[in-house]
Design a protein that fits this description.
The chain is an alpha/beta fold. It is built from twelve helices and 16 strands.
């Protein structure tokens, strides 16, 4: 088995496989937990009880019986999660010898079977051929099973209208930040004019952090931001509730300039290297004209809206992420037309249509099966462009994966160590 990605779900997948006796290799493009490192300063929305497995805890305790465990109700930062769980897990005997870091998987294919060869051509008898790049050289690995847990955080969505890079956005990419600011960075931006683009929880975290340190924030969204950021009654994820409540208070107190129903057309960065001012050319539609309308007369309303220019000292583009599916281009993977995730799971997620990630379920293990035998996507990548993935959902996927591989519906290693 080859696991792509040494993040949380990649580690847990490999650990589960090793416990069951599978031969496993993890290929990680950077360092272990590199994506978590991007948001290490951010406090997680879910408590520690939802962010570890019983098997992982047992593996760490076998090395360090006195390991300092956080309480189950504690909300860790990304750095604390790395230090207290993910990195110690990666250093256990079950995993450490099987992790190759700075080893990027560039392609997964079959050796003798092409993408165009039909399913009936016994594709499963042909081993996977995995091309990797490491230390400036390319080489080939083979595997009977490939599990892609590489996530999506390396591929942020552009900020331009329609999900396409705005005019000049690519050239100005170094001036657009796609991660939540640290407290230190927010302090450095105090008194400056900053744009936060996006209507998800990452944008909410960024806004609260910036405003609380005296930054002048303009919040730019393409619709009504509170459609996506609705407060949930008696929300069990108290950290999520806290952030949204703070955001609502800041909006109600007019401490944020809200630019809703906006589409970014152009990005320019004509400032000096010392103060690289960024200008955004924005179309702004009124709320009543923002909804899709089948009326032919309203089809070109946006074109009639005049482009306005807004100048900022810094821009945070927190518009979500998308999967890089190029690695499996030569495999027969049916992808969703909307989310670009594996079709069966994507159809289930889109059909549930819930704003609360805790309400989303993937009870059927068949949702993980793709048209390509023994190729699976788990973790955030399995959700494609869909938000709302939870670590505990990934653990459920792992159980389901090995039930499929072992053809044992009752197999659940986590239950063995629960207690």
């Amino acid at each position: 088995m080859l696991v792509i990605g040494g993040g949380p779900i990649g580690l847990e997948t490999a650990l589960y496989a090793r416990y069951l006796g599978y031969q496993v290799q993890i290929c990680e493009a950077g360092d272990v937990g590199a994506h978590v490192e991007q948001w290490k300063h951010v406090r997680m929305f879910s408590p520690f009880s939802m962010n570890h497995s019983s098997l992982g805890k047992a593996a760490i305790e076998s090395h360090h019986p006195d390991h300092p465990w956080p309480t189950g109700d504690r909300y860790l930062t990304g750095q604390q999660w790395l230090d207290l769980y993910l990195l110690p897990l990666s250093q256990t005997d079950l995993l450490q010898p099987h992790i190759q870091t700075h080893c990027r998987v560039t392609n997964v294919s079959r050796t003798w079977t092409l993408k165009t060869d039909l399913v009936g051509s016994k594709r499963s008898d042909d081993p996977f051929r995995i091309k990797v790049e490491q230390d400036g050289t390319q080489r080939i690995l083979t595997a009977d099973v490939v599990v892609d847990t590489s996530g999506v955080l390396a591929h942020p969505n552009p900020i331009g209208a329609g999900g396409v890079a705005a005019i000049g956005e690519t050239a100005s990419a170094d001036h657009i930040q796609h991660t939540i600011p640290t407290a230190e960075q927010a302090d450095q931006l105090a008194g400056q004019n900053v744009a936060v683009i996006g209507a998800g929880h990452s944008a909410a975290c960024a806004i609260v952090t910036l405003v609380n340190t005296g930054v002048n924030v303009t919040w730019i969204v393409r619709g009504n931001p509170f459609n996506a950021l609705q407060l949930i009654d008696d929300d069990p994820l108290v950290e999520r509730s806290r952030i949204l409540q703070e955001l609502n208070e800041l909006v109600n107190q007019s401490k944020i300039s809200l630019l809703a129903h906006a589409a970014i057309d152009t990005v320019q960065s004509p400032g000096t290297p010392e103060r690289p001012t960024i200008q955004l050319g924005i179309y702004h539609s009124s709320e009543q004209n923002s909804e899709l309308d089948s009326n032919e007369e309203s089809g070109n309303e946006l074109e009639a809206v005049e482009l306005s220019w807004h100048s900022f000292d810094h821009v945070f583009g927190l518009t979500g992420y998308r999967p890089d599916q190029s690695v499996c281009r030569e495999l027969q993977v049916h992808q969703c037309y909307a989310s670009e995730g594996p079709m069966k799971l994507a159809a289930s997620l889109l059909g549930q249509d819930s704003q609360n990630c805790l309400d989303i379920s993937s009870e059927s293990r068949d949702l993980l099966i793709t048209a390509e035998p023994n190729y699976y996507q788990l973790g955030m990548k399995s959700y494609g462009r869909q938000p709302g993935f939870l670590f505990k959902t990934g653990l459920q996927q792992i159980v389901q994966l090995f039930q499929i591989l072992g053809d044992r519906e009752s197999l659940d290693v986590y239950q063995t160590f629960a207690g």
